[in-house]
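not sure who needs this but someone in the group chat was asking about Ankyrin repeat-containing protein from Parafrankia colletiae so here u go. i didnt clean anything up, its just raw.
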Amino acid sequence: MTAALSAGTREAFTALLTEDVHWGGEHGGNECTSRDQAGDHYAGLLAAGITLQLAELQQTAPTGEAEQLTVRLQIQSPDRDDFPPQMTIRLTLRDGLIADIRELDQPATIEVLYFDGCPNLEAFLPHLTALLAEHHIAAPVTLIRIQNDEHAQTHHFLGSPTVRINGQDVDPAAERQVHVTRDAASRYGMQCRLYSTPDGTAGTPPDEWIIEALIDNPAHDAAVNAIHSGDLSVLQRLLTEHPRLASIRLHRHGGRTLLHVATDWPGHFPNVAATITALVAAGADPNTGVLGEHPETPLHWAASSDDVAAIDALLDNGADINAPGAVIAGGTPMADATAFGQWHAARRLLERGADTNLFAAAALGLVAEVQQHLNTSQPTAEDITSSFWGACHGGHKVSSDGATDIRDQQVDAPEVLGSRIDETLDVARSGHVGLQAEDVGVGQVEVRRGLGEGFGVASADPDPGALGRQAGRDRPSDAAGTPGDERDPTVQMKIH
């Protein structure tokens, strides 16, 4: 394991795993159920600059045929807010390979960030102590005094008092408050903090936020399980017993709403249409975005999982078909569907009236729409190059004489993408957006391995199962180009 982690490659890591390895799923995080999925997830961590090092390993007595190891990992991440510096996991071995990777719960850390003279801190600290005692939570409270503006920037200080549990702000909207601001640093400073709560504005976080961040809520977990199993009777009972359940964010499940739970990767949960309808009837907003830099709605997630039943149910219940916020350049659900090769979803969105840009039109083989975008939107050479990628990604061949083969159907399309070939080749030859070009004959160019900044390799017949919501979460890039399937580095895009 030490050697595999030091090697820092997908291949070295997956060599340690069984074919049916299970990894993750704790607190609503990514869940992998195969060697390929685990390898993709690990590759995504590496691509984001996150490295793991073995700090300590303890062997436990074998249980039946399974042997277990307790492992403490050191984690290095470009953003210290993304991961804790250390994590303890339990490995279950089978036939000498890792069959299960499970994050173990750590003792809670509670931090209160403040500045001297904060008018709300004096009353809040004894209240917090009493709240913890009431719920039998034996966790120390660490006070962090913010001394000046520079200190505030370093600690991402949103105001006094700020409460963090295990490094995460207890306010579900805290991350969104930062990312919706163009200059995130302007959010930090020596300032009093105001919290928008269900009961109005307050100078301290509500008790329920603190407790939910510290203690598993049985109703939340039961609702998640009911959604994943398609048990509508249990879900309806929980929604009746807990009237706010449909609309709140679940702290222990990554701040997701239940609609996001219903559309999360891999999607296609039993009775998903009826589940979505029940959640919206109980108060869920189908246009609520997930927390983070990319406020994707449940429709984005359904599109990324190629879940047509969920897409129809969301649209029937008021979802915005062109909502922005996708992990792909902040675009619409169509952007996610086409970039991740979720063609059933993309075509259903098109049938339901979704807008298309040049890339989506090319990926779907919509020749007339491609022509319209070229005539009206003044695309850059980079836009055209990206759209050539999209056409190949969708299985459509585009040539410089304007003949476009949409799968097996010949369509005569003079002056479509091929008519702008000179601009495209200029981009390719210059290495723009990570493409490298090589002249292979008069009037021909072969574009090889578009593996530049935010630009991946696409298979002509992409695997929807590998490029869905999992890929959207794990892949860090959101460049205007599209991500690809790094598992097949031999795929080439040829423009003739």
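also The first strand starts at residue 17 and ends at 24. if thats useful
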